[in-house]
Amino acid sequence: MSADSHPLLAVAALTGGVGLASALAASVFMVLPEAVRRALVPHLVSFATGALLGAALLGFLPEALEAAGPGHGAAIGAVTLAGLLTFFVLEKLVLWRHSHEDPFEGHEPHDRTHAVGPMILWGDAFHNVVDGVVIAAAYLTNPGFGAATALAVFAHELPQEVGDIGILLHSGMSRGRALGLNLLVSAAAVLGGVIAARALGRALTLLPFALAFAGASLLYVAVADLIPGLHRHLGLRRSLEQLLLILMGVAVIWVTQHQAGAPQDR
Questions:
Q1: What is the DSSP letter of 101?
Q2: Which of 7, 104, 234, 251 has the maximal Cβ count within 10 Å?
Q3: Are 141 and 10 in contact (CB under 8 A)?
């Protein structure tokens, strides 16, 4: 086996494992009683928030700064900022596409229930490609960090996969078709991961900036998408539960990152 093939196979295994595990877990999750799902999802979101924050702020950005070397901190900051703005624009586009209001004046809005399913699948495929790039960048920095990042991505993907399957069922798809297409779309993470591993492996000078951009992705999801939802619950007990689960997510990422393997020499 060549030196180049090992990272590709490892990244493919990680990204494929995350996609398969999240899709299968979501399918199992969907057969649970609705009351159980409603009770579990907020806890999963809190844990995912901590995992994403831990991966971004304890892993990606410090690794990016270290890999870039002295004097490149401003460039890493600029790429991180560019990443945050990029994902802001992308989310705006997705929200616009999912809106039921016709963006063109003079046209009546119409029922798009059946159109939402394909849009969800395309959006999820793109998101999974990004997840694959994130995992590949982390693995090329440190295999242990790659495993920790895969765990963070899984923690975020599970609630999202459950929601996506629910939307597909609402759009009129059968349960079997919705689960099958969701599993197929999850494979897009492998494509993104393998392409990123190949490209970054051949251009290691780009790796610090890829890490910064990937960190911005996780940071944006946690801060812009997940945390605002947590603030909808203001009770003291619920808030303490959220904080505990966030800290657990951070702790799991920290332990996974540091126990799975020490950083490799550069």
A1: S
A2: 7
A3: no
Instruction: Give the pLDDT band of residue 2 (cuts 50, 70, 90).
Output: very low
Cβ atoms 11, 139 nearer than 8 A: yes
Q: Are residues 49 and 222 in contact, defined by beta-carbon separation less than 8 angstroms?
A: yes
Look up residue 225 and give its DSSP letter.
Answer: I
State the average pLDDT for the chain.
79
Phi, psi values for residue 59, rounded to 5°: -120, -70
Among 196, 79, 202, smallest CA distance to 146 is for 196
- Residue pair 54/152 in contact (Cβ under 8 Å)? The answer is yes
Task: Tell me the three state secondary structure of residue 44.
Answer: helix
Cα radius of gyration (the chain): 19
CA dihedral 192, 154, 45, 225 (to 10 degrees): -10
pLDDT tens digits along 90-149: 778 766 765 544 433 444 444 444 555 666 677 678 778 888 888 998 898 888 888 888
